[in-house]
Structure formats: C-alpha cells, structure tokens
Amino acid sequence: MLSDVMEDYLKAIYQLQRDHDERIKTSEIAEALDVTSPTVTSMLEKLEDRGLVDREKYRGVTLTDEGETVALEVVRHHRLLEAYLTEHLDYDWSEVHAEADRLEHHISEDFEQRVADALGQPTVDPHGSPIPSADLEPPDRPNGESVTEFSEGDIVVVEEVADRDPEVLSYLADHGVEPGVELEILEVAPFGMVTARSSTSEDDVSLPEGVAHHVRVTSPVEAES
Amino acid sequence: MLSDVMEDYLKAIYQLQRDHDERIKTSEIAEALDVTSPTVTSMLEKLEDRGLVDREKYRGVTLTDEGETVALEVVRHHRLLEAYLTEHLDYDWSEVHAEADRLEHHISEDFEQRVADALGQPTVDPHGSPIPSADLEPPDRPNGESVTEFSEGDIVVVEEVADRDPEVLSYLADHGVEPGVELEILEVAPFGMVTARSSTSEDDVSLPEGVAHHVRVTSPVEAES
DNA sequence: GTTTAGGGTTAGACGGGTCTAAAACCGAAT
DNA sequence: ATTCGGTTTTAGACCCGTCTAACCCTAAAC
Predict the structure, then answer these.
(1) Which residues of chain B have pLDDT under 70?
(2) Is the CB of B15 under 7 A from strand C?
(3) Hey, is the C-beta of A3 within 8 angstroms of any chain B C-beta?
(4) Which residues of B173-206 are buried (b: 16+ CB within 10 A; e: fewer)?
C-alpha cells in the first residue's frame, strides 16, 4: 500500500521529531534522505493526502498518529533486524545498519514475529536504541540524555550509541564506548567536544560534537526514573 | 545498477529456460510475472540494451551469459533464503517461497555469505532445488526428471518438488511427497495425472498434471549418473 | 499462394519519484 | 515599514514500469 520510499520519509520524520520536538522542516528531511527540497515537498503532499502527516505550508510537518504508527513499524523492523544480525549472523554492531536499512521494508509480519521470537522479544537493539513494541504504541521518551549535557568529573553509563556510520562505531567500540560501559567525563570543550575515559579502555576518547550528540548516557546515581 | 524488476525478469526467463530449452516467448514471461505483453516487450528492449538477453523480434529471447549470471545470483539468494528460513526461523517449507521472493533482491553479498556459512554451504533448498554455487557457474542439468515420465509399478525417489503454491506444498507434505521419500507409481492417467503411494504415508496421492510436472524424481537403480 | 488467427510490437498515456530553474514566501535586519 | 536572505513551493522535465488500444508479423490452414 505504501511504497518503500514513503516509509523512508515517515521514518526520517519520526527520527527527526525525536531529536528536537518541533515541526520538521523540508530541508531537514532533504538532508536526512539525501534528496532535494522540491522532491521532499512533493512527497509531503502525497503523505498529507494519505493522512500520514500534518502539513502547514512553509512551516514544516509533523506525523499524524497513523504516520507515527507506520514509522514505528519500520523502526521496529530495522532494530529487530539489527539485533538479529548481530546475534545470529555474526555481524558486528558497526556493520549492521546498512543491511537493516535494505531489509526493513521487505519483511512480512510473520518474519518480524519469528525474528522477535528467536531473540526473545528484545527491547533494545545493539546500539542501545529502544525497539518499538509489537503493538506500535509510541514509546516513552528515549533513555538518558546526550553526553554533552554532562560536565567534567561526572561518571555516566552509556545507554545508547545512535550513530549510523560504521567507521565511527568501530572507533567508539575500539575506545570502549558501547552501551553498558561506564564513562568518566574528562572535559567538555566549549565547541561541544567531549573527552572521556571508558572503564573498559586505557586510552581517553574524544568525541567531536556531532558524535557526542549521538551518545546518550544516564547518571548512575539517578539511574531509576 | 539493475532494478529489482529487471532481476525478476531475468530470473523468470532463466526458470522458463530450464523447462523447455527454446527461446522464451513474450507471452510466457507475461504469464509468469503477471504482467501484460507490451510491458514485457519494453522490458526486454531494456535488457537487450544492457546485454542481458539476446532478442529476436517476434521470436522470443534467451539469456546471455551475463544475464544468466544475474539470474543465478538471484536464484542463489532465493534458495539460500528458503533454506535459512526453514532451518533457523522455523518456517515450514510450504511457506517459505513468498518471503524469499520479497527478500531476494535486497540482501548484500555479505549477507548471502553469512547465511551460506550458517547453513554450511548447502547445495539444495528445502524443495530439493539446487542452489547455484557462489561462483555462479551454470549448474548441470537439474536432478531427476518429471514423475510424469514414469509409469505404473515404477519405484522412484523424490528429488525435487518445485511447486510454489503453499497450498499445494502442504497437501503434498501431508501425503508424504517430499524430497527424499520413495514413491510407488500406481497409475499414470492419459491426461497426465499421476497416482502414487509414498513410503511415508498410508494414503494414495493423486497429482494432477500441473502438479506432477513439478515433482522431479530419480529411479533408485540408476541413481548415480 | 492467400488468408487468417493469434501473439508481438508500436504508440501513447499514467503514476511514482526524482531533478533543475524560477517564483513565492517568511522572518529578521534595517 | 521595507528590504533582503534563505527556504519553500511551483512549474516543468525525465526515467521507470506499467497499462490499453491499435497495428503488425508469423505461421499454420486452406
């Protein structure tokens, strides 16, 4: 019923919406999907016709409930696949994203369920990102907050590393930045770069702003919220 | 580089070519892909431009070597997926075809290899159909011959059940017609229907011509060829 | 050797998804 | 209040894969 491409747009909007909680601008979507703005505009018209987004001309879009459900379905597929590939097909967490992106639109409900069963109904993927539940109810706010919110001396535990770039992920893994590990914040530079030391690595790691932004952590003291 | 649809055409031509060894007609492809003939004609022009088929106007097409290689790749994907789904995700052999059809165009080389490894480099899929090898060399003639070639009293062993319809496959499984089992031919009706009894079932099975045609068997005496 | 039935091909249209170029709009700065 | 910069949308084009309608070819029948 919906094309792959439409699903991609909805997923992109959903993920942008997670970050900053405002209407999503055409140019952001264009950027995210590597497409020009006129292309986005025309796609948004179609999504609006189908009742999947609320659009206000010149002011961006938000997902309707229906649109969000579709997005959640796609994200669920994506993250289940990521989990399955690392768990059962020996993929490294850094490699998994591209493959899941290819497959996420082409699996049946049946397949989704069997994969979820094989994994024991997991709730997070290998990057620590929450897997939407099978009922596709919008999940609560994401775990933790960006590591950039903390400051020198803080001890935090990594919840999620949401970067997509395999190079970056390999680098992070090499320096002990993975979900579950403890990090001591050594420095937060004014231009946003975070330097830290992982409990599982000797060396310090420096995370330029763009990378640090994708590393979500919690403070171990107030871990239960 | 090649679209999914092009791959589908090449796969269809390949499989039609396996059956009867002549040029493949437009209408056969149209039938196989559930598409009209003009659509096929225009697609064949594109495939010809890309050097994937040899076309003679009004006389059908054959695959070029390059076209055959592409088809083999797709078939390899398809059959590896079928094998993996039954082996590791608890699918029944009757359900597996549709899912593999969806996924076959969207898996990476890497994924293909990991699946093949996980299965121990299998050479046949759950229906007994040969899986093209990783080097994509054209395989030898298929195993066995159609059960319709045999006659009353013959004992044969099922090599391959190449039907795609889940209903038919379930029916066959229920009556003990699966790769590896022995069949006694009870009757071959003039209109092509074959009646047989499986060594693993009490009841007789009758296979209408269309179905029987997809059941390939070997005679156990001359099993090694 | 003509005719003719039937399948194949051309012609032209359409929707999807994309682009570039040009016009329209918003909002901030003067 | 006006202008200006930057973003968004409109306009128009293109390719893909598909369709229907009309035309054409082949091969078999006479």
Answers:
(1) 142, 221-225
(2) no
(3) no
(4) bebbbbbeebbebeebeeeebbbbbbeebeeebe
pLDDT at B209: 87
Predicted pLDDT of residue B224: 47
Contact B115 A89 (CB under 8 A): yes
Nearest to A160 by CA among A214, A206, A198: A214
pLDDT tens figures, A151-160: 888 999 999 9
- Tell me whether B223 touches chain A (CB under 8 Å): no
- Asked if the Cβ of residue B55 lies within 7 A of any atom of strand C, the reply is yes
Contact of B92 with chain A, judged by CB distance below 8 Å, is answered with: no
Q: Test B107 with A102 for CB contact under 8 angstroms.
A: yes
Q: How far apart are CA A75 and CA B38, in angstroms?
A: 39
A110 CB neighbours in chain B (<8 A) are 95, 99
CA–CA distances in Å: residue A180 to residues A82, A220, B81: 18, 11, 34
pLDDT of residue A98: 94
- The low-confidence residues of chain A, meaning pLDDT below 70, are 142, 221-225
Alpha carbons A163 and A211: distance in angstroms, whole number: 7
The Cα A181–Cα B154 span in angstroms is 67
Q: Which pLDDT value is given to residue A136?
A: 92
**A113: closest chain B residue by CA:** B89
Express each pLDDT in B99-128 by its tens digit: 999 999 999 999 999 999 999 999 999 999
Cβ contact A88–B115 (<8 Å): no
Distance CA B2, CA A110 (A): 28
pTM over 0.70: yes
Write out chain B residues lying below 8 Å of A95, CB-based.
110
